[in-house]
Specification:
Length: 312
């Protein structure tokens, strides 16, 4: 049994599909099947049940847990040795949501790469829960996002506080306030009165999204039952539809300042108004890491540089 065979096994165990696993590994299905068969023969156990469907056997589940631990130990050892030898090479694996990645990574990665040209950065995108599980299991080194729910399991460095904004189509402001629209824009610049918009249609994220949960908390606070025109998993879709005048949405502050997300700052200003919501809805953005996993010099540098850039 060697590290390569264990890695092949882990990829198959993650994908639960030999075809997809072979594509990830850039080898043929036949070659991958041979390697898995060789490992099963070496261990004298079945690692996968193939009928009625492809699943891990009890022995496979045990080997998967052990292989993940072995892989983590091997990786941490390589990181420590690289740091001790001052090679300034290696890999940094960052987990971040797709949209937040579009907002932050163009700001953070170019200067990091310039200072650390020998470090390969791998980005994993997914939901917060998926990424936190990956962090817990050592599949990524850093997670960027809102403070993890299970904060006790991680260490976290604060990157900043992020307020939520109500995105209102300008046509709605005219509809509601007529010739007083500009006066109301000035009034709401310091904090919007959500009750003024309680009867307007909303475009909201799905209920399992953290921004949606904060929005629901806001509605509950003011005893509002929002008229939800539609729900989406993509926050950019919600913003784009608000720009088209379909409804109001709720959008994080950091995304509003991102040139990578907004189609055009001027187009956005022409189409919608963005007003800050209650300050206590602001959430802390962090970069989190596992306290029991070795944190490389590159990872520490990334955290420090991210803090400096986002506080500038």
């Amino acid at each position: 049994m060697n590290f390569q065979n264990l890695q092949y096994f882990l990829i198959v165990a993650e994908e639960m599909n030999v075809t997809r696993a072979a594509k990830r590994l850039h080898i043929s299905e036949q070659a991958l099947s041979r390697q898995i068969g060789k490992l099963e023969g070496e261990l004298s156990v079945k690692l996968f049940e193939r009928n009625p469907r492809f699943t891990l056997s009890p022995a496979g589940k045990r080997l998967k847990a052990a292989a993940e631990q072995i892989g983590n130990i091997e990786r941490q050892l390589h990181l420590e040795l690289d740091d001790l030898s001052h090679n300034n090479t290696g890999e940094l694996r960052i987990g971040i949501s797709y949209t937040r990645g579009q907002a932050l990574l163009p700001l953070l990665l170019p200067p990091f790469h310039q200072k650390h040209p020998g470090i390969t950065v791998t980005i994993s995108e997914g939901s917060a829960s998926e990424l936190q599980e990956n962090l817990s299991k050592g599949r990524i080194d850093l997670f960027i996002g809102y403070v993890p729910r299970d904060l006790d399991a991680f260490e976290a460095a604060e990157l900043g506080r992020e307020r939520l904004f109500l995105v209102v189509p300008k046509t709605f402001m005219t509809e509601l306030f007529a010739d007083r629209a500009d006066e109301k824009r000035k009034e709401f610049a310091g904090g919007v009165d959500i009750l003024c918009f309680k009867d307007m249609p909303f475009i909201l994220l799905d209920r399992d999204d953290r921004v949606r949960r904060m929005a629901d908390r806001l509605f509950s606070r003011y005893d509002i039952t929002p008229r939800v025109l539609l729900e989406t998993r993509n926050i950019q879709t919600a913003f784009a539809l608000a720009m088209e005048g379909m409804g109001l949405t709720i959008y994080p502050e950091m995304f509003l300042s991102s040139q990578s997300l907004l189609p055009s700052a001027q187009a956005a200003r022409d189409a919608v108004d963005c007003f800050p919501l209650d300050a206590d809805l602001a959430q802390t953005i962090v970069v989190a890491y596992h306290p029991e996993k070795y944190l490389s010099n590159a990872a520490r540098d990334f955290i420090e540089e991210a803090q400096e850039l986002l506080r500038a």
